[in-house]
Amino acid sequence: MMSELDLSPPQVIVRLLMGFISARAVYTAAKLGLVDQIDRAGSTEDELAARLDADRSGLVRLLHSLTGLGILRYGDQGRYFLTEVGETLRADSLQSIRDYAIYVHEFLYDLFRHLPDSVRDGKPIVEQELGASLFAYLQQHKDAAARFHAGLANRGRIETPAILAAYNFGDCHRVADLGGGNGAFLSAIVTAYPSVSGVLLDRAPAIDAARNGHGGPLPRCELIEGDYFTEVPTDIDLYIFKRVLFDHSNEEVIKILRNCRAAMKPNSRIVIIEGLAGIRNEPDLAHLMDLTFLLVTTGRMRSREEYNDLLGKAELRLLQCLPTRSDVSVLEAALL
């Protein structure tokens, strides 16, 4: 078998072009619940076909693919075992990414056939495809909104420990998570810091999910249906924007930050928790995420310097930018 180093330039391109098949194989394993059916002592092809009520020949092909991708390991006596990576697709794993896998492939995947159009005109395709802007569509379609918030909360949960390790939320009495989805991140904060109370602001589908406990317990928290373009709570020590601002254009971000500034106390702070723009000539997930924003929103990935510029235009100043052991950084800001 050829190693990656032995591939010719055309072979490298072929593998890049076929990468979507790997992604669909992973999605299929998540969607069918395949990994949840694999015993700790391993499972055979016949056992898995029976448990999934699946055609044995088709399932075997998927299993073979997943061993090549490092999701499964084929071992003794014809049994398949989950690898450490494969464990993250289990629904009951503390590091589960299953909901995110389903969200990516049932919400984003089909939009990418329009990438050439968005590259040509620089505009998102989502309104043409869905009949409304992303957030208006989610407001109107509860099932899609539930899938959206579950997927993002799923991914957010795996980066939360790294954020809590990088930034101290304990010196705040009251925090507001603006656009905080189903409350998963706010739940992690108030759980880690019993002296902190919180406010969750988001649109109705997200708040409904939070009220139903989908993001975790929210003691000492007020849940508000609203929009940070028009409504920002007052008497807050720390305003949180986690994976929110990169959904919006520069002009929209400045408006959001100015709304926040108008509500801030003299000693209030803002934390922006986002992935930063990738570095040219380096493989970086941020480059691929930027293409997603091109298709779906008016936003984009931004550098530390670009956030600093936007904060300045909203009469705010960047205090620090903290890296984390995840895909996001924590940018802290205050009044000028």
Could you characterize what this model shows?
By secondary structure, this protein is of the alpha/beta class. The protein has 2 domains: 4-87, Orthogonal Bundle (Arc Repressor Mutant, subunit A); 98-335, Vaccinia Virus protein VP39 (Rossmann fold, 3-Layer(aba) Sandwich), CATH 3.40.50. 46% of the residues lie in helices and 14% in strands. The strands form 2 sheets. The protein has a 7-stranded mixed beta sheet, with helices on both faces. Strands 1-2 form a two-stranded antiparallel sheet. α11 links the parallel β3 and β4. The radius of gyration is 22 Å and the shape is globular. It starts with 8 loop residues before the first helix and ends with a strand.
CATH architectural name of the largest domain: 3-Layer(aba) Sandwich
**How much helix is in the residues?**
40-55%
In the sheet with the most strands, the strands line up as: 5-4-3-6-7-9-8
CATH superfamily of the largest domain: Vaccinia Virus protein VP39
The largest pleated sheet is described as:
7 strands, mixed
Structural shape: globular
Could you say what the CATH topology of the largest domain is called?
Answer: Rossmann fold
User: Would you identify the regions where 5 or more consecutive residues have pLDDT less than 50?
Assistant: none
Mean pLDDT metric = 94
Distance between the termini: 60 Å
Instruction: Give the topology string: H per helix, E per strand.
Output: HHHHEEHHHHHHEHEHEEHEHHEE
Spatial extent as radius of gyration? 22 Å
By DSSP (H or I, 4+ residues per run), the number of helices equals: 15
What's the number of extended β-strand segments? Answer: 9
- Please report the first level of CATH classification, the CATH class of the largest domain: Alpha Beta
Q: How many independent structural domains?
A: 2
Strand content: 5-15%
